[in-house]
Design goal:
By secondary structure, the protein is mainly α. It contains ten helices and no strands.
Amino acid sequence: MIDTIFRFLTEHISAYGAVFIVSMIPLIELRGSVIVGTAFGLPWLNVLALSIVGNLIPIPFILIFGEKLIAWLKTLPMLSRLTNWYEAHLMSKSSTIQKYAFYGLWVFVGIPIPGTGAWSGSLIAALLDVPPKKAFAAVVCGVLTAGVIMTVASRGVVGLFQLFA
């Protein structure tokens, strides 16, 4: 599936457009867009900036409408079971997450591992009624952190020295 997306992007959209679009796709987000930009050979600073902006565009909408999205997903037969499980899992951790909401969300969004990211972090914040301004600030910090980690990782150890050349 990833190669199909990559092929479509390379055939129909500019490299910068591909980076921007990939950064907004749930679960792929900035982590994937930095890799796409690196694969295209784009300058690291341009890729990082475009990935951050693209990744942050959907976040206010998720923070505002996340609870309604979950409620709607529960009505869909194919997704209701998974949605109910996910919500129950999140709510079981609610006291800890609410206590450490800012730093918890920052770390959750900032560590680039599967299942984490700005979309997931924003949805968790919406479900746990974290104030949107506080949640958005934490997600921004997490996206910046993930951006730096992914930029360094995608350029490799040797590329690290080229970042500052």
